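Inputs:
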Amino acid sequence: MPDAKKFMYINRKAPYGTIYAWESLEVILIAAAFEQDVSLAFMDDGVFQLTRGQDTKGIGMKNFSPTYSALGDYEVTKIYVEKESLEERGLGLDDLQHLVWEDEDEDYAEKDSIHLVSRAELADLFAGQDVLFNF
Amino acid sequence: MKLTIQVNEGPYQHQSSDSAYFFTKAALDKGHEIFRIFFYHDGVNNGTRLTTPPQDDRNIVKRWSELAKEHDIDMVLCVAAAQRRGIVDDGEAERNGKDATNMADGFRISGLGQLVEGAIESDRLVVFGD
């Protein structure tokens, strides 16, 4: 297999109105076994996927939001959230789940997975990838 | 260039699968290699042989089957997406106790690893969807 590629998963849609968010997560979890250099981006309505306190009882659908907190165990440690998308929707970092990963090299210190980035910074991150998965 | 194509929408409702088809054809005409076409989300509906579009309309499923046959293209339907949406081959029918199959010629059902492998092995992953 060639060297690891830089894989970025771009999540642009709200979590339950369509299946894209859930089926994107399924790709991310499967792909973790392939040991690529993975990062996630959340923008547009995709930022709603990470909101805390999701309750899906009223719509009869599975609440898959707890899965995001398992991403650290899958070595998905770089999660970029677009600042403008949050602000446009009246959201802030406090509205999102607190996602962490454990750094083996630093005695399993817990580190934040979520990084707020500006639209321009996100564009630069896109440009630096080998593969963009767009959901 | 070696390409993997990902198709995320079903036939007729969205233009995505038409665009993916024409892009694939154009890429082949230009001498590029198609490593794989991976159908995900509602894209798996491109692989049912039971569609019957009006006679004066394009037959999207048949078109894929013919393209795959002509150019020996590997066309993969995601198994998890296909199970949800009722796209079934012999193996899936047996495993899940279904009384019918509907997968069209030229397709096969396999896992998401096939998409990831396509992205790793190809020069470009080209995604068609909304």
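Chain B touches chain A at residues 8, 40-41, 80-81, 111-113, 115-117, 119-120, 125, 127, 129 (CB under 8 Å). Flag for discussion at group meeting.
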